[in-house]
Amino acid sequence: MLPQALLRSDVCFEYFSLGVLTDVVVDIPDVPGLDDFKGQVCHSSFWQVKGKEEEEPRRNADFQLCRPAEGIDYKDKRVAIIGTGASGVQMIQEMTPTAAQVTVYQRTPNLSLPMGRRDLTREEQDAQKPMYPTIHEAREHCFAGFHYDLLERNTFDDSPEERREHFEKLWKAAGFHLWLAGYKVSHFL
After folding, report:
1. What is the pTM (predicted TM-score) of this model?
2. What would the pLDDT profile of 158-182 be if each residue is shown by its tens digit?
3. Cα–Cα distance between 11 and 5 in angstroms, integer?
4. Does residue 89 form part of some domain?
5. Of all residues in the chain, what percent carry a pLDDT higher than 90?
6. d(CA 164, CA 172)
7. Which of 102, 114, 151, 186 has the smallest number of Cβ neighbours within 10 A?
8. Is residue 108 part of a domain?
9. Tens of pLDDT along 54-83?
10. What percent of the chain has pLDDT above 70?
11. Neighbours of 170 (CB within 10 A)
């Protein structure tokens, strides 16, 4: 039975979250020869939080899984990643600049866009603060709740040069711009 607070009509926001914590069994693929592999085998779900002691993870293979509290040095190593979920994508972008070789095994390609994350100087932060009310207002009227929206024209309404210029602008903006500030028929056919 739902709590009475959820049935009230005068409540602006209510949160009713059900979460079931389960005993997670990590899937380690049955790769021929994995038990004989002499290198490090790591699983993103076993990454150790710095300074936090945890019990030994259960595993469904006989090899030892590494638990890198301080990270792993990939310099000049051959690395294989199985899976390109959120963790896989993050690990790949960290490994590729220094690893000798990175091989990725994926079943389903993921949409991953450069987020363009960087530290802002105090001056950059202060320069944006006067725009906050305008940005927040714009988010109320956009498809995805960002302060930008899909273009109100179709992809082929523009010339090839105009399309390229627009896509380059979106790529440089980074984040979700490429996905959510593009032509209106690019992603919702």
Report:
1. 0.51
2. 999 999 999 999 999 888 888 888 8
3. 8
4. no
5. 20
6. 12
7. 114
8. no
9. 555 444 444 556 666 667 788 899 999 888
10. 69
11. 21
| Angle, CA 61 vertex, CA 64 and CA 56 arms, to 5° | 50
Residues 6+ apart with CB under 8 A from 31: 82
Give a yes or no: residue 112 inside a domain: no
Find out whether 153 and 184 touch, Cβ atoms under 8 Å. yes
Other CB atoms within a 10 A radius of the CB of residue 84 amount to 18
Q: How many domains does the chain have?
A: 1
Average pLDDT in the 132-150 region?
A: 84
Q: How far is CA 65 from the centre of its chain?
A: 24
Distance of CA 96 to the CA centre of its chain: 17
Phi, psi of 109 (to 5 degrees): -60, 145
Would residue 106 count as lying in a domain? Answer: no
Angle (CA) 93-96-97 rounded to 5° is 100
| Range(s) of the domain holding residue 155 | 122-180
What the block records as the tokens of 99 is 């690893």
